[in-house]
């Protein structure tokens, strides 16, 4: 029978571990801290900022909110980063993108202290990740690995036996999800295939996805993966988050009480259609996203311990 992986339970378990570790650091007079940097008021970035603040509060971390207006100069943003680099209450800095157009991502990212770069944006940390020596593996890809590791452990499979030589296909090649994820599984000696929009445009997507023992999908396209794109007995991890209209039996939009189309959150995988073909699958919502922020906090804990010479 298919296992729907309980990512919410994994996230809760991780949070307990994080709180326990933060408490033991506090007993030694040390408090980890995260600073977010949001330039302007992008809706998605603002939502993410709020979540990070909430989790910091729950875990007893320091939290600093830097939120200059959208018309701030690039130099001023870099100055804010330098100030955070020098602040001992801040273990990790999280730039929340997108930035306004006149602010270059790389100018901001390159100015972050590599030892506070908890979501692995800095080229030096990405380089270490590629070499198999990550200091701070980025939150979303490492959430996927955490979910897979815990799944393997539950089946009594050693990580080595789980990953080595396994056919793993990553759908998506973005700098923040697909590429780092590919490095993480490649460094575990999986036979790694990365496919993307150009693979689909050539009509080759399912040729690759159908080979996968483990299929990880991070494309941001609802219903990209149906049963025809999944091998029988595969493990399917759906990273995608999409907001779509709710449709009735005639595929007409269902309206809410205000007469507007109702919407819901779905992944990239057609969950109901794929579920019975897969050996295990993560749902959306309640999937990878439930683990992602916890991985960021784990990195902040690590940064804090490194700073104190405890790691
Ligand atoms: P992105 O837009 O930067 O990259 C999308 C990738 O998908 C690209 O590599 C693109 O080539 C590929 N792609 C697009 N259409 C495709 C198609 N038809 N066939 C094959 N590949 C296709 O997005 P991202 O930042 O990497 O995020 C991907 C998804 O993951 C989004 O839905 C995002 O919301 C979600 N996400 C989830 C979490 C989480 O914690 N669950 C975290 C970050 C991102």
From TrEMBL:
Pathway: One-carbon metabolism; tetrahydrofolate interconversion. Its EC number is 1.5.1.5, 3.5.4.9. NADP(+) binds at residues 172-174, 241. The keyword Acetylation does not apply. The keyword Oxidoreductase applies. Coiled coil: none annotated. It holds the Pfam family THF_DHG_CYH. InterPro entries: Aminoacid_DH-like_N_sf, NAD(P)-bd_dom_sf, THF_DH/CycHdrlase, THF_DH/CycHdrlase_cat_dom, THF_DH/CycHdrlase_NAD-bd_dom. GO terms for cellular component: cytosol. Residues 138-307 form the Tetrahydrofolate dehydrogenase/cyclohydrolase NAD(P)-binding domain. Catalyzes the oxidation of 5,10-methylenetetrahydrofolate to 5,10-methenyltetrahydrofolate and then the hydrolysis of 5,10-methenyltetrahydrofolate to 10-formyltetrahydrofolate. Belongs to the tetrahydrofolate dehydrogenase/cyclohydrolase family. Homodimer. This is Bifunctional protein FolD. It comes from Candidatus Solincola sediminis.
């Amino acid at each position: 029978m298919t296992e729907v992986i309980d990512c919410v339970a994994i996230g809760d378990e991780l949070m307990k571990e994080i709180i326990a570790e933060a408490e033991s650091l506090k007993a030694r007079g040390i408090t980890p801290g995260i600073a977010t940097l949001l330039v302007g008021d992008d809706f998605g970035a603002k939502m993410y900022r709020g979540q990070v603040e909430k989790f910091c509060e729950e875990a007893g971390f320091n939290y600093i909110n830097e939120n200059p207006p959208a018309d701030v100069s690039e130099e001023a943003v870099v100055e804010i980063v330098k100030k955070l680099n020098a602040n001992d209450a801040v273990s990790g800095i999280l730039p929340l993108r997108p930035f306004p157009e006149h602010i270059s991502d790389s100018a901001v990212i390159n100015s972050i202290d590599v030892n506070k770069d908890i979501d692995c944006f800095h080229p030096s940390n990405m380089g270490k990740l590629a070499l198999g020596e990550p200091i701070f593996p980025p939150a979303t890809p490492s959430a996927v690995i955490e979910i897979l590791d815990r799944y393997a452990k539950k089946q009594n499979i050693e990580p080595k036996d789980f990953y080595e030589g396994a056919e793993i296909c990553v759908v998506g090649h973005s700098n923040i999800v697909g590429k780092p994820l590919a490095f993480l599984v490649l460094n575990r000696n999986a036979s790694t295939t990365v496919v993307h929009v150009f693979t689909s445009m050539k009509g080759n997507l399912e040729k690759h996805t159908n080979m996968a023992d483990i299929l990880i999908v991070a494309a941001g396209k609802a219903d990209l993966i149906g049963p025809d794109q999944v091998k029988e007995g595969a493990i399917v991890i759906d990273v995608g988050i999409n907001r779509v209209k709710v449709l009735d039996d005639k595929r007409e939009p269902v309206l809410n009480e205000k007469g507007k189309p109702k919407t819901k959150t779905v992944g990239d995988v057609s969950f109901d259609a794929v579920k019975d073909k897969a050996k295990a699958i993560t749902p959306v919502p309640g999937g990878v996203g439930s683990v992602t922020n916890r991985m960021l906090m784990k990195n902040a804990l690590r940064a804090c311990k490194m700073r104190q010479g405890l790691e």
